[in-house]
Amino acid sequence: MHMLDGYAVAFLLMLSLSVEVIDASAGDADPHYRICVSQCEESGCVGERCFPNCKFSSDGEPIDRPWYMQEPLYLQWKEWDCQSDCRYYCMLDREKEKELLNQGPVKYHGKWPFSRIYGMQEPASVAFSALNLAIHFHGWVSFFILLYYKLPLEDGKKAYYEYAGLWHIYGLLSLNSWFWSAIFHSRDVDLTEKLDYSSAVVLLGYSLLVAILRSFNIRDEATRVMVAAPLIAFVTTHVMFINFYTLDYGWNMIVCVVMAVAQLAIWAVWAGVSRHPSRWKLWLVVFAGGLAMLLEIYDFPPYEGLLDAHALWHATTIPLTYIWWSFIRDDAEFRTSDLVKKAK
Ligand SMILES: [Zn+2]
């Protein structure tokens, strides 16, 4: 147990160190790059290439646009566009120069130099997020069909499975989280980043709650509320902290890793002691999920400007999600047949 503790501490330390550097990366500390960006934000051009969104009209002229496109939101978007275009083309120029000098890629503002596709900043992560979303949707719909159309219903209308409502909310939170992940990887601005991080924290906190409720067989409403209250309070506080105080990447990573490791451990132990008929699916997801988390630590630059460790991490959760929903369906079937037997 002590070895495990030591390992967990080393693991968290490594994680917090690896994210601490996000604020200032080697790329954006480079004076060539800095000069390029500040010149671009004034002139609106990098070399021959000029960006229309770098021409701001802040002199208060009435602009003939619908209300939601008027200042300041409209100006804000223009500013974001200008800044992101400048940063992107300055980065490309700088990386080209460095390639001639045989220097490897470095990070800019915490991110590797990715090639954009249709204006998406990290196209591979966007594609994998969308696939995760699709698999969650498929999993949830098939769970729904199994529960209400294939399995017997109590009094002909209510599902026997006691954890149905919990998994429905889990499905919704998963869809929400992958939706914002796809948006964030398409376009990284303050707003999309906060939405993505907040949704991920909420999903992680909620799935930890489900892990506790399911593995301890907590079916009684009052006990469920008692267990949920401190977790909900903590997650709410943390979400408010990262949104309205400061998005501390190191601290947020620790919170996420602790919640993730806790639920993996709970499922693993439960799979061992419960003799659940589909426990091999639990073990597979726990084991592969743990391995996949290593991809977040061994961060490598994108292959061909597209496929990096983070994108690969999002790719690994696609088959795991499929197996996960199949476990949830098995669990519903298993519990239902048990309950129907008892009712007879
Ligand atoms: Zn991501």
UniProtKB/TrEMBL annotation:
GO terms for molecular function: hydrolase activity, acting on ester bonds. InterPro entries: Per1-like (IPR007217). One of its GO terms (cellular component) is Golgi membrane. It is a multi-pass membrane protein. Residues 1-24 form the signal peptide. The chain crosses the membrane at residues 126-149, 161-183, 195-213, 225-245, 251-273, 280-298, 310-328. Involved in the lipid remodeling steps of GPI-anchor maturation. It is found in: Endomembrane system; Golgi apparatus membrane. The lineage of its organism: Eukaryota, Viridiplantae, Streptophyta, Embryophyta, Tracheophyta. Its main location: membrane. Keywords: Golgi apparatus, GPI-anchor biosynthesis, Membrane, Signal, Transmembrane, Transmembrane helix. One of its GO terms (biological process) is GPI anchor biosynthetic process. Belongs to the PGAP3 family. This is Post-GPI attachment to proteins factor 3.
